[in-house]
Structures are given as C-alpha cells and as structure tokens.
Design goal:
Distance between the termini: 82 Å
Largest sheet: 6 strands, antiparallel
Strand order of the largest sheet: 3-4-5-6-7-10
Number of helices: 3
Radius of gyration: 20 Å
Strand content: 35-45%
Order of helices and strands: HEHEEEEEEEEEEH
Length: about 200
C-alpha cells in the first residue's frame, strides 16, 4: 500500500513537471513568433523584450507570462506610433518609437554584438514605470545577422542586456534581471534615414 502511494506521488510530480516544461516551451515559441517578421511586407521590423517569469510581476500576471503573452507591452515594431528606422547597415541598426523606445545595435561584421549596443525602454513594475538604458556585458553574447536582398537588408538579432541604468538619473539599478531582446527586420534600406526625416 505504501509503495503504491509513493508511486502515485512520483507519477503526479512527473506529470506536473512535464506540464510545466510544455508551458515554458509554448511560451518560448510564442516569444519567437512575436519577434518574427516572416510573412510581413518589406519595411517591417519587430523588437521584443523578455524578462524572467518571476521578475517583478504581480502574481496574477505569472500565468500569462508562462504562456508567452505577458510581455506584449514590452515590444515595438514598424506599426507602432512614431516608429522610425534611423539607420541600418550590415553592422548597424537604429530603431525607435514613441513610448521611450530607442534601440542601437553595433556588430563586428561577423555577427558578434559589440560596444555601442544599447536599448532604452520603459519597464512597468507593479505600480510604477522605470525608464532604463540597458547594455550587454563584455564580451557580449547574442548575435546580429544580416543578409542582402537586392538593395535591401533582412536580419535578425538576439541580445542579452544585464547592465541597466536609470535613463533619467543615470544611476545604476539593482535587482533587475538580464533582459533578453529578440527581433527581426525585413526589406530595410541600408544607410538611409527614415523618409520623414530626409524630407526635412
């Protein structure tokens, strides 16, 4: 009888763990889909900021985070208000949008992210918002890949940003996780400024 109880407990724990793993994998797949421009027209781009599931979330937000839909407010793309492509090239990308978004990526031409890369964004924590300026470590993990298609560039990137400062005060922040930033772009014109800027 006791062996049966132990066996049932082991099976229940195994099923629970398997379910949790499946949910986490599903959440990761959702994040990857959010950060993809596959099927979008030329000129499309998307940037998605991810944070650990238990990082600064209210308890009722955790199920949404597990399912991969908890950080939808932490993304922007070409359809976002004020979206701009300030510059793009084989080793450089600058994107911005209303709401405090400003992304700069610099690479060494071989896919490696280098100094100068940073992301400014607003992190919503419980009852307050914090404007952050985050940078990668040195050496920086992640990648920035581009490919030419005619006179346009396609590409994708993943950044890991552990070094964040308060963008307004310049002070270092403590207790924040490493933010993962995924994104991709399609059919961007190299070495050009956004049309609205060039007409000025």
């Amino acid at each position: 009888m006791r062996r049966k109880k132990i066996l049932l407990i082991i099976i229940a724990v195994a099923l629970l763990l398997a379910g949790l793993v499946l949910l986490l994998l599903r959440g990761r797949r959702n994040y990857l889909e959010l950060a993809s421009v596959a099927g979008q027209p030329d000129g499309a781009f998307v940037v998605q900021v991810e944070r650990p599931i238990l990082s600064g979330r209210a308890p009722w937000e955790i199920p949404r985070a597990i399912l991969g839909s908890g950080d939808r407010e932490h993304r922007f793309g070409n359809m976002s208000p004020g979206a701009k492509v300030a510059g793009v090239g084989p080793t450089h990308l600058e994107l911005s949008a209303d709401g405090g978004w400003d992304l700069v990526i610099e690479s060494n031409g071989q896919g490696r992210v280098v100094e100068g890369t940073h992301l400014v964004f607003i992190l919503r924590l419980f009852d307050r918002s914090l404007k952050l300026n985050c940078r990668p470590a040195e050496p920086a993990p992640g990648h920035f890949n581009t490919s030419a298609r005619g006179n346009m560039l396609d590409g994708d990137f993943i950044l890991y940003l552990p070094q964040c400062k308060n963008a307004e005060s310049g002070k270092n922040t403590a207790g924040l996780p490493t933010f993962t930033v995924r994104g991709s772009f399609k059919g961007l014109q190299p070495a050009t400024v956004n049309d609205s800027e060039s007409k000025k």
